[in-house]
């Protein structure tokens, strides 16, 4: 596990239930989710489409507000979005008319503090993600991987307690994805904050996570939590790594592949 910084947050999910109304009928998406995340811990959440993992992340972000049960950060209810939680989506969502530095600075738009301190934090986080020298570049001048680095810097520039990641590398090619997984591990360890990753990629989950939360669909619920007791940096080719990866993959071997009405909650 990463060494937690004093600002690393705790997350507690207690008896969480979530449903949508679909054509007048209730659709249960999450059922009795219970999970405690320690300061500085990296949690990977995996599951097939329809298991509700992205819905769970949206609830943690504060984009979804209607639910039963408790969602707590540092023992306080999560109500709406907060500067204490940074978010990185699969699409980088950069503004094309802004430079790298200006896109990162958007993460400080509603933050208190002197402008000089904000400018310093922007420069520090651009360097943290390996983009020093690209401050004045525009998104069209960046590769997909570089754009995601900007998105990560923007999510971290306010120094949140928790970083939430929704398939952040899912749209990238395999080589870029592998490299950015290594970089994300370095960045999160450097910041010392708590991180929650939603991914379809079991290898990515094993490489990054201290624990892997395996979700089961229809309705979404936690099937199993797997500890990843491997030293960092992790060796993807080791027998121990492959044993954990195969163990997690085995949880999906009996799931049916037919389309699910819960696909909207993937």
What structural keywords apply?
disordered C terminus, 266 residues, four-stranded antiparallel sheet, Rossmann fold, alpha/beta
Radius of gyration: 18 Å
Structural class: alpha/beta
CATH superfamily of the largest domain: P-loop containing nucleotide triphosphate hydrolases
Measured between the Cα atoms of the first and last residue, the distance is 28 Å
Work out the number of β strands. 10
Q: What percentage of residues falls in helices of 4 or more residues? A: 25-40%
CATH topology of the largest domain: Rossmann fold
CATH architectural name of the largest domain: 3-Layer(aba) Sandwich
Query: Are there runs of 5+ residues with pLDDT below 50, and where?
Result: 257-265
Order of helices and strands: EEEHEEEHHHEHEHEEH
Number of helices: 7
What is the overall pLDDT average? Answer: 91
Strand content: 15-25%
Oligomer: single chain
Q: CATH first level of the largest domain: which class?
A: Alpha Beta
What is the total domain count? 2
Strand order of the largest sheet: 6-7-8-3-9-10
What's the overall geometry?
Answer: globular
What does the largest sheet look like? 6 strands, mixed
């Amino acid at each position: 596990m990463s060494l937690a910084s004093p600002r690393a947050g705790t997350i507690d999910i207690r008896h969480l239930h979530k449903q949508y109304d679909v054509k007048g009928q209730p659709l249960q998406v999450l059922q009795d989710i219970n999970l405690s995340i320690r300061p500085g811990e990296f949690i990977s959440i995996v599951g097939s489409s329809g298991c509700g993992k992205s819905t769970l992340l949206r609830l943690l972000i504060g984009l979804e507000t209607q639910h039963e049960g408790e969602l707590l950060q540092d023992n306080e209810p999560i109500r709406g979005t907060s500067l204490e939680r940074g978010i990185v989506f699969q699409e980088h969502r950069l503004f094309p008319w802004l430079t790298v530095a200006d896109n990162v600075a958007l993460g400080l738009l509603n933050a208190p503090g002197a402008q000089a301190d904000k400018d310093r934090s922007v420069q520090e986080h651009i360097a943290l993600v390996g983009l020093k020298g690209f401050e004045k570049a525009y998104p069209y001048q960046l590769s997909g991987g570089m754009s995601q680095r900007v998105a990560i810097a923007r999510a971290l520039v306010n120094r949140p307690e928790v970083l939430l990641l929704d398939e952040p590398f899912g749209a990238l090619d395999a080589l870029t994805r592998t490299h950015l997984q290594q970089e994300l591990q370095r960045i999160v360890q450097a910041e010392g904050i708590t991180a929650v990753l939603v991914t379809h990629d079991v290898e990515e989950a094993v490489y990054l996570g201290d624990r892997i939360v395996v979700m089961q669909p229809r309705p979404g619920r936690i099937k199993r939590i797997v500890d990843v007791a491997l030293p960092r940096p992790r060796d993807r080719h080791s027998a121990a790594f492959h044993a954990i990866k195969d163990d997690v993959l085995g949880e999906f071997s009996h799931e049916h592949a037919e389309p699910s009405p819960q696909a909207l909650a993937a």
